[in-house]
Amino acid sequence: MHEYSVMQQLIAALKEELKKKGIERIKEVKLEIGELTFLGKNQLSFAYEVMTKDTFLEGSELKVVTVGAEVKCDECGYQGGIEYVDDPAFHYNIPVISCPDCKNKPRIIHGKETTIVGVTALRDDQNE
Ligand SMILES: [Zn+2]
């Protein structure tokens, strides 16, 4: 599953960062994912739970926030969200990455990122 390989990298980076800061216990990790990553929130949470088991991250919670995509069109200057079409052949919504105004291919500014935006640390004297 794609979510597993993404989560594996994120946890490795997270551990590294926490080690650098001397943080040994955390309560919560906040993760932002762009809507164009097509990662499932539930799958990510599940992967996090499985992979942090028996590590110092065990018991902490992963909060996933989806960030909308934003594109910029160099042709007409459009900047904003992307459109979706309901394709009956695939039975799901696929994003159309083209400018809604001039149909040119825009640049993707946001939507593909997977970023840890915050970590809530637990102090030693806190149990919850
Ligand atoms: Zn355009």
Structural class given helices, strands, pairing? alpha+beta
Total strands: 8
Distance between the termini: 32 Å
Shape: elongated
Spatial order of the strands in the main sheet?
Answer: 2-1-8
What fraction of residues sit in β-strands? 25-35%
The total number of structural domains is: 2
CATH-defined topology of the largest domain: hypothetical protein PF0899 fold
Task: Estimate percent helicity.
Answer: 25-40%
Low-pLDDT runs: none
The number of distinct helices, counting runs of at least 4 residues, comes to 2
Please write the CATH class name of the largest domain: Alpha Beta
CATH architecture of the largest domain: 2-Layer Sandwich
In N-to-C order, the SSE pattern is HEHEEEEEEE
Based on CA atoms alone, the radius of gyration comes out at 18 Å
The major sheet is characterized as: 3 strands, mixed
**What small molecules accompany the polymer chains?**
zinc ion
Oligomer: single chain
